[in-house]
């Protein structure tokens, strides 16, 4: 989309940082990771989500700290997923 800036999830950081993942986007995110061949990342996210829901069923999001191998596919999938969400919402949302 011309003129639209994508959030960068691939910037280099020395220390891994948590990613906030919304429960509403977790299933699609894991599907995208599976399709990209990052099934281990998808499994780890599903387990983390399950634990978060067990701990706080009313929660809307959970934090996930990716392993170094998880970071590239996770950041790419999050960028695409959230860009698509912004496209659906339209400008100013």
Summarize the structure.
The chain is 53% helix and 9% strand.
What key attributes describe this structure?
single chain; 93 residues; mainly alpha; two-stranded antiparallel sheet; 3 helices; 2 strands; 53% helix; globular
Give a written overview of the molecule.
The structure is a single chain. The chain is mainly alpha-helical. The protein contains 3 helices and 2 strands; from the N terminus they run βααβα. It has a two-stranded antiparallel sheet. Helix 1 packs antiparallel against helix 2. It is globular and about 35 Å long. The protein starts with 18 loop residues before the first strand and ends with a helix. The relative contact order is 0.23.
Helices and strands in order, then pairings?
Blueprint: E1 19-22, H1 23-35, H2 39-55, E2 61-64, H3 71-89
Antiparallel strand pairs: 1-2
- Structural class given helices, strands, pairing? mainly alpha
Strand line-up across the major sheet: 1-2
In terms of DSSP E residues, the strand content is 5-15%
Overall average pLDDT: 85
**How many helices?**
3
In total, how many beta strands?
2
Shape by Cα distribution = globular
Distance between the termini: 16 Å
- Fraction of helical residues: 40-55%
């Amino acid at each position: 989309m011309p003129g639209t800036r994508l959030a960068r999830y691939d910037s280099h950081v020395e220390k891994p940082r948590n990613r906030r993942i919304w429960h509403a986007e977790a299933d699609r995110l894991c599907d995208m990771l599976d399709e990209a061949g990052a099934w281990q990342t998808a499994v780890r996210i599903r387990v983390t989500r399950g634990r978060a829901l067990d701990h706080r069923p009313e929660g809307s999001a959970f934090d996930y700290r990716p392993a170094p191998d998880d970071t590239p596919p996770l950041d790419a999938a999050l960028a695409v997923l959230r860009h698509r969400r912004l496209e659906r919402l339209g400008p100013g949302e």
